Amino acid sequence: MKNSFLIVLLGLVIISCKEDASHRGDGDTQQKEAVEIKDTINDISIGAKESYPTLENMADSTFIRLADYSGDFAYDMRYATENNFLKAQVYDCAECYTRVKTAKALIAANDDFKKAGVRIRFFDCYRPNSVQYKMWKIVPNPQYVANPVKGSIHNKGGAVDITLETLDGEVLDMGTDFDFFGKRAYHDMTDLPQNILDNRKLLKETMEKHGFWSIRTEWWHYNLSSASKDPIADFKWECEH
Ligand SMILES: [Zn+2]
């Protein structure tokens, strides 16, 4: 109890120092505070370091921090909070890492999205295999969590969970929240309002154009086609940004 009070207090102090703490909509005050604190956790510092090599000069298999190579993405890294279906924080901090080849494809896709007035908002990116074990321990059910022994393409640095938001930060309606396990999240669910179908179509067609494929039951999940044979990784990022 004492710890969570301190975390809330720290969150509020950080929010009061921030000009634009929330991009979210309405809700009651208590809920809003919780969401704002989560948003604070998800503030990913953006900006390339000049000493970094360019993506073109690196091996495709290298892991990179996406925000170091593009400032045009938005982040809502749910597994770095308790706002996910596990109801548990499994990352020490919110970061989005991918392999170089995945990053190149994501940047190209995002350039296309920007022409349509939107951008990618990430829920999850590369996931170390040890985190997959953590998730499996909480929910040992292959219907919801990939078995860590076999691994997921997230563990290979080639899968991302994403949605779209406008360039002003307004999230597009995709019909369900991230990690909604049910028919409404399926790509073949067509009994949905037209604007939702249009939003999903824009997401899917653009990602496919840039070498990603989708899975039938999750509108948010995209795999880079060339990543399926890559090895499972357990590279861990530093929480210092
Ligand atoms: Zn996924």
What is the CATH C level class of the largest domain, in words? Alpha Beta
CATH architecture group name of the largest domain: 2-Layer Sandwich
Q: What is the alpha-carbon Rg in Å?
A: 18 Å
**Regions with pLDDT < 50 over 5+ consecutive residues?**
8-41
Main sheet: which strands, in order across? 2-4-5-7-6
- The percent of residues in helical segments reads 25-40%
Total number of beta strands: 7
Stated plainly, the CATH topology of the largest domain is called Muramoyl-pentapeptide Carboxypeptidase, domain 2
Bound small molecules, deduplicated: zinc ion
| Biggest sheet layout | 5 strands, mixed
Instruction: Note the gap between the termini.
Output: 28 Å
Structural class: alpha+beta
Order of H and E elements? HHEEEHEHEHEE
Q: Indicate how many domains the architecture comprises.
A: 2
Number of helices: 5
SS strand fraction = 5-15%
SSE layout and pairing:
Elements: H1 2-17, H2 29-41, E1 63-65, E2 74-75, E3 97-99, H3 100-115, E4 118-124, H4 129-138, E5 159-166, H5 194-209, E6 212-215, E7 218-224
Parallel strand pairs: 2-4
Antiparallel strand pairs: 1-3, 4-5, 5-7, 6-7
Helix pairs in contact: 1-2, 3-5
The chain binds zinc ion.
The site of zinc ion has 5 residues, from strand 5.
Write a structural description.
This protein is an alpha+beta fold. The protein has two domains: 1-41, no CATH class; 48-227, Muramoyl-pentapeptide Carboxypeptidase, domain 2 (2-Layer Sandwich), CATH 3.30.1380. 29% of the residues lie in helices and 14% in strands. It has helices at residues 2-17, 29-41, 100-115, 129-138, 194-209, and strands spanning 63-65, 74-75, 97-99, 118-124, 159-166, 212-215, 218-224. The chain has a five-stranded mixed β-sheet, covered by helices on one side. Helix 1 packs across helix 2 (29-41). It is globular, with a radius of gyration of 18 Å. The model is unreliable at 8-41 (pLDDT under 50). The structure holds zinc ion.
